[in-house]
Design brief:
Oligomer: single chain
Number of helices: 19
Largest sheet: 6 strands, mixed
Strand order of the largest sheet: 6-7-8-3-9-10
Number of strands: 10
Distance between the termini: 33 Å
Radius of gyration: 36 Å
């Protein structure tokens, strides 16, 4: 369960937030330099012109006052004379205000178009970046993760990116407008500028501190959300077990723990944001009160003109509103940075199975495999120890042994789903670490015990991972796997969707689809991990014939608990406690009266619990 951290702000948390912000800007600037330039220029214009309206308003008020004084001093002046005098005096500030507002609307439009053109593609680039990095993780990484939680992290990152870029731009523009406003106030009346600067600095520091705490709380909230999502997806993915075991109540009780954590983090976040907004409101009210009192006193003692009064009050009021919004924007930014940070944490997990810089796309010709003093284990517990094994090109080798002896692990190491702790694995005399993972795995077909298909058509599942497949080749592969007739009996035939994880068809049909895929890929090496375990005896006999054709001329390793399926193997390797204790053909091993013979007798008597 997620553990709550303290609210103390440390330098590392400040640095983390700054790094997140810089990473956002770097990612966006690199992909969209023109859009970013347009946004910066437009934002600068917005910041420069925002204080202009209150400033022009002050000039306009003084001009109107002077116009009225000129008119009243001359009783014979008519309306047209007053209008002419007024236009001459107030025409330029009125025109300037209208032009500035028109230009500001164009600026808003420019910023909107720039975001419209750049942000969707930036989100797409981030999703792609995270997903690509995620796919580069080792198989062991995914064994310890919820798929729903990983997907939610990516969703959090892309949603946080959009809001973070927009709010960063708005915050920078608002800060610049503050600086310009303070300068204008100083040129009119230093006293009011001093009050303004004290308030602006105080509220900016207050907002920044709130943002730091808010970012941490938002990340905790996003993490609890991802955990909840992962739990829900895990339950829904195993709905057959939930329904058949009548464990819906247990799943609800389990989910409630994550829901409660999610609610707790949500309430903590909202409570803090509400308190922070109250502080912003009180600071803003204090600022407006001081400015208004000062203006009234100054106007009474005639140190503040009517135009100054209008300018300072209007500017103070508008900037108070914007800075108040800035505080809320800082909180919103921290919330989106928290989501983004939670999503970007995927990039902080080191990929422990990586291609070397000089890795090659070797084309395997023979498919000979060699283990030299290989040791490997999970969580510091050795599964294979000092294993030495050589499998010749085109040889058919069976692997047997008790549960946990390392049979399936051996196949995973050949595929380099994990890196060995010690020793070396070579294929065609090439260390598998010297090959790119894609090149290695494209030339090996694995048919596992538990087949999980994509919720796509049968044709897509059979042809998965094979480029430019013709219908003729697809059908031929299905026929070899004895699945073609079943496919043709379906209403949509090869276009039939198989459902989530392929659950709309039987386990035996899923395995035959996987075998058809192996036929289609035509690799030099085939790995069969209990490949016929889900088939009935009659279907297994038919598939064995097809597998015989698949194995012909290919290096084949077969892990099976049905020892009868290994009788035709060239060699059978017997593993026990991570070591090879016996090897030979079926007859030789029976005569040896060793572990293989014991396993055969147990299975022959119907007791196969010692095997898988």
């Amino acid at each position: 369960m997620y553990a709550r951290t303290t609210s103390k702000i440390t330098l590392s948390k400040v640095n983390t937030m700054m790094r997140s912000t810089i990473d956002i800007l770097k990612l966006y600037a690199k992909a969209h330099p023109l859009a970013l330039s347009a946004i910066i220029i437009a934002s600068l214009f917005w910041a420069v012109t925002w204080p202009a309206s209150p400033y022009l308003l002050g000039i306009l008020v003084d001009a109107l006052q002077n116009t009225n004084q000129a008119v009243f001093s001359n009783q014979s002046t008519g309306f047209m004379s007053w209008l002419t005098t007024s236009v001459n005096i107030i025409g330029w500030p009125v025109a300037a205000m209208i032009i500035i507002n028109l230009l500001r609307n164009m600026v808003y439009y420019t910023i909107g178009v720039s975001f419209e053109k750049s942000i969707p593609s930036s989100k797409a680039a981030l999703i792609s970046k995270l997903f690509r990095y995620l796919l580069g993780q080792s198989y062991g990484y995914f064994e310890n993760q919820y798929s729903g939680q990983l997907a939610n992290k990516i969703a959090n990152a892309q949603s946080g990116l959009e809001s973070a870029i927009q709010l960063l731009n708005l915050n920078i523009a608002t800060l610049l407008a503050l600086v310009i406003s303070g300068g204008l106030l100083a040129s009119v009346n230093p006293f009011f500028a001093l009050i303004f600067w004290l308030w602006a600095i105080s509220i900016c520091c207050y907002s920044y501190r709130n943002a730091l705490i808010g970012e941490r709380k938002s990340k905790a909230y996003a993490t609890s959300q991802s955990q909840l999502q992962g739990e829900m997806v895990d339950s829904l993915s195993n709905m057959m077990t939930v329904v058949t075991d009548a464990t819906g109540g247990h799943e609800i009780d389990r989910l409630d723990k994550f829901v409660n954590q999610y609610v707790e983090e949500d309430r903590s976040l909202q409570s803090y944001f509400n308190l922070a907004r109250l502080g912003h409101g009180l600071l803003t009210t204090l600022f407006i009160s001081l400015m208004l009192i000062g203006l009234l006193v100054g106007f009474y003692y005639q140190t503040v003109s009517a135009g100054d009064f209008a300018f300072i009050l209007s500017l103070s009021w508008s900037m108070a509103g914007f800075v108040h919004d800035l505080g809320k924007q800082f909180l919103d930014l921290s919330q989106h940075l928290g989501k983004l940070s939670e999503g970007m944490s995927l990039l902080q997990v080191v990929q422990n199975v990586k291609d070397k810089e000089n890795a090659k796309d070797y084309a395997l010709q023979k498919g000979s495999i060699k283990f030299s003093n290989v040791s490997f284990g999970y969580n510091d517990k050795l599964v294979l120890e000092d294993l030495n094994l050589e499998i010749h090109s085109g040889e058919k080798v069976g692997i047997v042994g008790r549960s946990g002896c390392g049979k399936t692990t051996l196949l995973k190491l050949i595929l380099r789903l994990y890196d060995v702790k010690k020793g070396l694995i070579t294929i065609d005399d090439h260390p598998i670490q010297s090959m790119t993972q894609i090149a290695l795995r494209h030339q090996i077909s694995l048919v596992p015990q538990d087949i999980s298909l994509f919720h796509r058509s049968i044709a897509e599942n059979v042809a998965y991972g094979v480029a430019h497949v013709s219908n003729e080749d697809l059908i031929e592969a299905a026929k070899k796997a004895h699945i073609h007739d079943f496919i043709m009996s379906l209403p949509e035939e090869y276009n039939t969707l198989v459902g989530q994880r392929g659950l709309k068809i039987s386990g035996g049909q899923r395995q035959r689809i996987a075998i058809a895929r192996a036929f289609l890929r035509n690799p030099p090496i085939v790995l069969l991990d209990e490949a016929t375990s889900a088939l009935d005896s009659k279907t297994e006999a038919i598939i064995q014939q097809s597998l015989g054709s698949l194995m012909k001329g290919r290096t084949t390793i077969v892990v099976a608990h049905r020892l009868s399926t290994l009788i035709a193997m060239d060699r059978i390797i017997v593993l026990d406690q991570g070591r090879i204790v016996e090897q030979g053909d079926h007859k030789t091993l029976l005569l040896a009266k060793g572990l293989y013979s014991q396993l055969w007798e147990k299975q022959h008597d119907g007791f196969i619990d010692l095997l898988v």
